[in-house]
Amino acid sequence: MKAPETSGDAESPSSLDLQALFHRLNNQLGVLLAQAELLEAKAADDASRVRAAQMVSSTLAALGTVREIRHEPSSWSDRTTGASQKGSVHTDPDPISNTDSDP
C-alpha cells in the first residue's frame, strides 16, 4: 500500500484525503473520550476509576498526537524515522496496566 503523497499545496488531492482522515480520527477519538469520561464518572470502585482515568488520559494524548501530526507532518516523519532528535516516539505496549495514579 502506497503512502499518501504530501506537498506544500493545502488543497492537493492527497492533502484533502489526509484532512478527511484526520477529521474521521478526531471524531472516533472524541467518541472514545466521551465514553471513557462517562466510565470514569460512573465507576463503582477506585480500580475502575483509575483504569477509566488512564483511558481518558491516553485518548487526550492521542488527540494531541493527531493535532501535532496534522500541523507538522514533516517533523513527525523525521521523528519516526530517527532523522531528527527534537522529540521521541513512545509506545506503551499495555497502557491500561501502566497507570501513574494511586488507586
Provide key terms for this protein.
103 residues; mainly alpha; elongated; disordered N terminus; 0% strand
Layout of secondary structure:
Elements lengths: L12 H30 L3 H26 L1 H9 L22
Helix pairs in contact: 1-2, 2-3
Could you please describe the fold and organization of this structure?
The chain has 103 residues and is mainly alpha-helical. The chain has a domain of 69 residues. It contains 3 helices and no strands. Helix 1 packs antiparallel against helix 2 and helix 2 packs across helix 3.
Discrete helix count: 3
| Distance between the amino and carboxyl termini | 44 Å
Shape: elongated
* Helical percentage: 55-70%
For the CA atoms, what is the radius of gyration?
17 Å
How large a portion of the residues is in β-strands, by DSSP E?
Answer: under 5%
Structural class: mainly alpha
Provide a quick synopsis of the model.
By secondary structure, the protein is mainly alpha-helical. It is 63% helix and 0% strand. It has a domain at 13-81.
